[in-house]
């Protein structure tokens, strides 16, 4: 059913173009997360898992699975979405896109939808790989899938914003490498923040990634260091903020029309 005023073909064309780029590097895109996930289990499972048998009643190997998925999801969502919109800027074809009969909504749906789709696929691959090493139980599978999609869309929007902001390939990697990766490792991806001293635990609560990871972990095991309500509110707030920034960016033409 067609929505009046909505160019479905335009959004679908952008989506298909971005997904075609993913299919061209399918082997690399699949093999890399499988190897990385396996290495994490070999290193963390052997070095730390032998000393920490359980965290909050969950076997350590199973405990780190949501964190591994989030780490990959953040990275892939950012890189796919940022490169997708930055490359047209780099080649100068962004002006053809802006002059085409497609709205801001259709452009964002095409690019962000493709980036989120790629991230969700990789998240499922990582989950399947992790299940080879440890038994995994998901108490709330529907909520897990919804949370996975919400975070993928949120960080794809953030990557889209970074792609618009960046003026070089170096800037494209600045936030993912120097900001997001440290926040992820300090956000309880591989440990419970309850294991930290009181002062550091309080400091950690100012890290927004903590809320995202713990909310996702709750969908697996029904328990987390942060209340699920606070985690969901933080995730929805982040998603809404990214939507506002994208809207303002296109309305003002910031780094798109000059």
Can you put this structure into words, describing what you see?
The protein has one domain (8-252). It contains eleven helices and two strands, in the order H-H-E-E-H-H-H-H-H-H-H-H-H. The chain has helices at residues 8-24, 26-47, 60-63, 65-91, 94-99, 104-133, 141-165, 169-185, 198-204, 208-221, 228-252, and strands at residues 54-55, 58-59. It has a two-stranded antiparallel sheet with strand order 1-2. Strand 1 (54-55) and strand 2 form a beta hairpin. The longest helix is centred in the middle third of the chain and has 30 residues, at 104-133. The mean pLDDT is 85.
Order of H and E elements: HHEEHHHHHHHHH
Query: In the residues, how many domains can be counted?
Result: 1
Calculate Rg over CA atoms. 19 Å
Work out the helicity level: over 70%
Per DSSP E runs of 2 or more residues, the count of β-strands stands at 2
What do the pLDDT scores average to? 85
Number of helices: 11
Uncertain residue ranges: none
Percent in strands:
under 5%
**Looking at the structure, what is the overall shape?**
globular
Strand order of the largest sheet: 1-2
Biggest beta sheet summary: 2 strands, antiparallel
Specify the structural class: mainly alpha
Report how far the terminal alpha carbons are from each other.
37 Å
Which helices and strands, and how do they pair?
Elements: H1 8-24, H2 26-47, E1 54-55, E2 58-59, H3 60-63, H4 65-91, H5 94-99, H6 104-133, H7 141-165, H8 169-185, H9 198-204, H10 208-221, H11 228-252
Antiparallel strand pairs: 1-2
Helix pairs in contact: 1-6, 2-6, 4-6, 4-7, 4-8, 4-10, 6-7, 7-10, 7-11, 10-11
């Amino acid at each position: 059913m067609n929505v009046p005023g909505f160019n479905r073909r335009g959004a679908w064309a952008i989506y298909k173009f971005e997904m075609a780029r993913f299919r061209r590097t399918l082997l690399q895109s699949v093999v890399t997360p499988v190897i990385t996930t396996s290495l994490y289990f070999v290193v963390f499972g052997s070095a730390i898992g032998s000393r920490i048998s359980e965290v909050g009643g969950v076997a350590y190997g199973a405990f780190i699975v949501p964190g591994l998925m989030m780490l990959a999801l953040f990275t892939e969502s950012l890189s796919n979405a940022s490169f997708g919109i930055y490359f047209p800027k780099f080649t100068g074809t962004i002006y053809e896109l802006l002059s085409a009969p497609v709205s801001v909504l259709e452009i964002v749906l095409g690019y962000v939808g493709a980036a989120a789709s790629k991230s969700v696929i990789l998240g499922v691959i990582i989950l399947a790989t992790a299940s080879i090493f440890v038994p995994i139980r998901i108490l709330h599978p529907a909520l897990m899938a919804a949370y996975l999609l919400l975070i993928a869309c949120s960080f794809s929007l953030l990557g889209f914003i970074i792609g618009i902001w960046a003026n070089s390939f170096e800037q494209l990697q600045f936030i993912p490498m120097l900001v997001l990766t440290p926040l992820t490792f300090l956000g309880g991806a591989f440990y419970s923040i309850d294991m930290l001293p009181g002062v550091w635990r309080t400091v950690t609560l100012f890290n927004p990634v903590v809320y995202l990871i713990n909310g996702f972990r709750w969908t697996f095991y029904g328990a987390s260091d942060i209340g699920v309500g606070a985690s969901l509110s933080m995730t929805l707030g982040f998603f809404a903020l990214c939507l506002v920034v994208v809207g303002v960016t296109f309305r003002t033409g910031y780094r798109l029309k000059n």
